[in-house]
């Protein structure tokens, strides 16, 4: 299931993308363009982006494969990352969705990097737009799949159990260029979510826990808040998300805290609505979200409010009244 991110106008992050000094796109040593505020790319050799020759180097050991997947739910397209040294070993983060075009983009990009040895395919979480190309990419690289233990059995059914090795929490993995990635278990968006930390380049690969161009959906808010706190404890200046533009310094260093603040503000708004005597999810949404919310987004907003109410209920700060019943027909 793809991520359903709330668009800019729904979240406190709405102004962050418009002030990003957009990260340069590099072709070798040549700077050829910039990300735009809307997540699209301004590039003077745009065609090069669509060929296998473009290699976008985000940091010394980080190469981003950006794809405009056209999904309205997460503005700014999607990213897969190769991490390490193209002349030595690399790892790949996520495998895209099941569409052949996406798999081809990853494999073309891999060729453009010189087909380095891939020592691991690191999965951020179980949603289809992250594991869809798993079998084809495993076949092309023969690399072991590394994932959260809760996901191992399911992925083993796709590529064979011997090809999947569960991660341990905080496990360090070596890759080319003498750098290491640390696996950070970060439930919230999904129970099996893992972020990866590249200390040497000061980068957090955040999967769908933090997005580059919008807010993200949360399954379990209590876990999500703990995961955000965990991420904030690893010093970084750049966020490499699965969707939306890469967030470079200085904003990259602030984004996790902005997510935390945003969730705290939403919680305060929900509590304020309850204090006014509003007791119904749809009414709370009407109270705290913009009036002209489109219908599709109202659904997402309601789910968002529900996750806040579930957390507050678990914390015994909010009580749920029994449902009322009436005859049908
Ligand atoms: Zn996703």
Write a brief caption for the model.
With 329 residues, this protein is α/β, with parallel strands linked by helices. It has helices at 46-49, 100-112, 128-131, 134-141, 149-159, 221-232, 251-275, 281-288, 295-314; strands at 24-27, 30-35, 41-43, 56-59, 62-67, 78-84, 89-93, 117-122, 145-147, 164-166, 172-175, 179-185, 194-198, 203-207, 238-241.
What would you give as the CATH superfamily of the largest domain?
Ribonuclease Z/Hydroxyacylglutathione hydrolase-like
Largest sheet: 7 strands, mixed
Named CATH topology of the largest domain = Metallo-beta-lactamase, Chain A
Distance between the termini: 35 Å
DSSP strand content: 15-25%
General description of the model:
This protein has about 325 residues and is of the alpha/beta class. About 30% of the residues lie in helices and about 20% in strands. The chain has two domains: about 250 residues, Ribonuclease Z/Hydroxyacylglutathione hydrolase-like (Metallo-beta-lactamase, Chain A); about 45 residues, no CATH class. The strands form three sheets. A seven-stranded mixed beta sheet has the order 4-5-6-7-8-9-10, covered by helices on one side. Helix 6 packs antiparallel against helix 7 and helix 8 crosses helix 9.
